Amino acid sequence: MLIGSKLYYFDSLESTNEYAKTLIKDAPEGAVILVDQQTGGRGRFGKQWYSPEGGIWMSIILRPPDPSLITIIAGVAVCRALHMNGVLPGIKWPNDIVLNGKKIGGTLTEIIDKTIILGIGVNLNIREFPDELEATASSVFLETKKHLEKKMVFDTLCKQLDDCYIMLKQNKITDLLTEWRHYTILLGQQVVIEMPDKELSGKVLDISRDGALIVMRSDGKIMRVVAGVCHLRKK
Ligand code: BTN
Fold first, then answer.
1. Chain segment 151-207, per-residue pLDDT in tens
2. For residue 94, is the peptide bond before it cis, meaning its omega torsion is within 30 degrees of 0?
3. Which long-range contacts (CB under 8 A, 24 or more apart) does 169-177 make?
């Protein structure tokens, strides 16, 4: 197994993604950095990522031929690992793992030269969140009252990431996207997508072979969205 063939484990780091960057030259592909807690965990757009003990905080060093679907396979692998443990989250494009409408995990993909640092955070057994996160964030434990063994979920996740990464390298894109469509909560939903310079609203139709979201505006125009923050429109 490539993913996790080398493991760097620490009680605490500022951020596994930042630490992974210091290993880029030396660590083999598939190396995993895993910690019990992060003191400066980071989310997308430079946001803080709440990372106390009880979650899975990890980064993986990858050197794929084409980086475009890494976030997609990460979402599929996290969903597979949790579904195998009886928890049924979904994917909100591009990188959110959601359960009962709340975010229980996320991925942060960073590219440095030709190396990808894939950061994954899963709020597994966290029992409370700071006030400012409570409305939007949750954990597997809070949503299901199940306490899943962190080591077991981590091992399953590494195995599923390995499997999805092999599929990607074998160009089994159709199969991977079929699985992503199965897990996503977005198909057919009305969304608003925030981009740096504009907003787009419409209905989600599909995902493209390079991971872009396909959205139909109310005037019928079909748009391809490559990056942004996606919000489900309240009904
Ligand atoms: C997001 O949804 O905004 C992405 C969250 C990514 C969090 C993980 S936890 C492990 C890794 N190290 C970090 O500092 N961030 C990622």
1. 999 999 999 999 999 999 999 999 999 999 999 999 999 999 999 899 999 999 999
2. yes
3. 169/64, 169/65, 173/69, 173/209, 176/69, 176/72, 176/73, 176/76, 177/72, 177/207, 177/209
Under 8 Å between Cβ of 41 and 19:
no
Tell me if the pTM is above 0.85: yes
Of the residues 51, 92, 98, which should be mutated to test ligand 1's pocket, given the most ligand atoms within 8 Å of the CB? 51
Please tell me if the CB atom of residue 55 comes closer than 6 angstroms to any atom of ligand 1: no
Measured from the CB, is residue 43 less than 6 Å from ligand 1?
Answer: yes
Strand 32-38 and strand 7-13: pairing?
A: parallel
Report whether residue 44 contacts ligand 1, using a CB cutoff of 6 Å: yes
Distances (CA, A) of 33 to 17, 18, 27, 61, 158: 8, 10, 10, 9, 12
